[in-house]
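SAMPLE LOG
Freezer: B-3
Tube label: C17
Construct: single chain, 68 aa
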Amino acid sequence: MLRREVLPEHTARYARAVERLGFDELWVVEDCFYAGGIAAGAVALASTDAITVGLGVLPAVLRNPAEI
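STRUCTURE (predicted):
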């Protein structure tokens, strides 16, 4: 799981390390105080070759449908 504490500028490096270590999946989560899951997931996907990236809880009440 991509921890919220991972700074955005380190997301790509973190995702590549997860893939290099042999993991098949990387999960990104959101909660009431962190709304960067979609962007972090996109960075992880763009930075890796074969890993599956999943989005955990996406609090819909905090999102504008036009953003999703």
